[in-house]
Amino acid sequence: MQAYGNDYVYVIAFGREPACLPRLARFCSDRRRGIGADGLIVICDSEKCDIRMRVFNPDGTEAEMCGNALRSAAALVRMKGMVCKDAVTVETLGGKRSVEILSLQGGLCRARSDLGEPSALTRRDSPETVCGMSFSPTALTIGNPHIVVRIEDVKDLEIKKYGAALEKSDYFPNGANVHFYCQSQRGTLNVRSWERGCGETLSCATGAAAVFAVARGGGLCGDRAQVAHPGGTLLAEAEGGHIFITGETRLVYEGELLPENIV
Questions:
Q1: Residues of the chain with CATH 3.10.310.10
Q2: Is residue 242 scored above 80 in pLDDT?
Q3: Treating both helix axes as pointing N-terminal to C-terminal, what angle do 205-217 and 67-79 enclose, rounded to 10 degrees?
Q4: Active site residue 20
């Protein structure tokens, strides 16, 4: 499935969670020797919610949450008739989340996710110099850790250079997703995201929520904003202290993975 170019391999594993998931994630994510994806999502049984979602990065590490995958996992079990309602609750390492299915036609779904309440924004008193450039990062969590940086223009940013350096900065002990953003004349928040354990991705829904939270906290937008990544534009909204993200997700293909071919 893919959501604005942020693609994952999904395995529905009710009652039979696969072994060696980090190895499986590395293989599935490999665009040369495997299937090719930004990571692996395993949908499991949950005692607390309708489903439980586990998120594995291409390097095999397990992440707390993923916003695009959250929307996609809920859409997938709804498409398959495994959950027969439009309000789907999802257990994640980052906490309980909920998804409202707004429309479903074939393999295309539009949904609105409640990503919860962001943590307090943490800003340094003075700019931080990274690889010779000065930044003023803001750190926060929305189920998973994020670092948000406002810059003049994201188009020509050397994101691999600066994103990789900030990912491993001392804001979070296990690293963080890094998002650089600027605001267009029409008020859209333009973003490029560097995700921990993955690299640059075409879209990041929790990143969109993090950028929106920082921009809103700085008075750059109100309770509703369009957040544009290279892969597409998500709608971010603040309501009752929570951040909601609305967007599409698509089921691209289904297939059988032969265990003997996993390298």
A1: 2-111+249-254, 122-246
A2: yes
A3: 130
A4: no
- Residue-wise pLDDT tens digits, 61-99: 999 999 999 999 999 999 999 999 999 999 999 999 999
Distance (Å, whole) CA 65 – CA 248: 18
| Active-site residue, 204 included | yes
Active-site residue, selected from the candidate residues 28, 109, 198, 204: 204
Binned at pLDDT 50, 70 and 90, residue 260 comes out as confident
> What superfamily would CATH give domain 122-246?
Diaminopimelate Epimerase; Chain A, domain 1 (3.10.310.10)
The residues that bridge with 141 in the sheet, in sequence order, are: 145
When the pLDDT of each residue in the chain is averaged and rounded to a whole number, the result is 95
Catalytic site residue from 28, 66, 198, 221: 66
CATH class held by domain 2-111+249-254? alpha beta
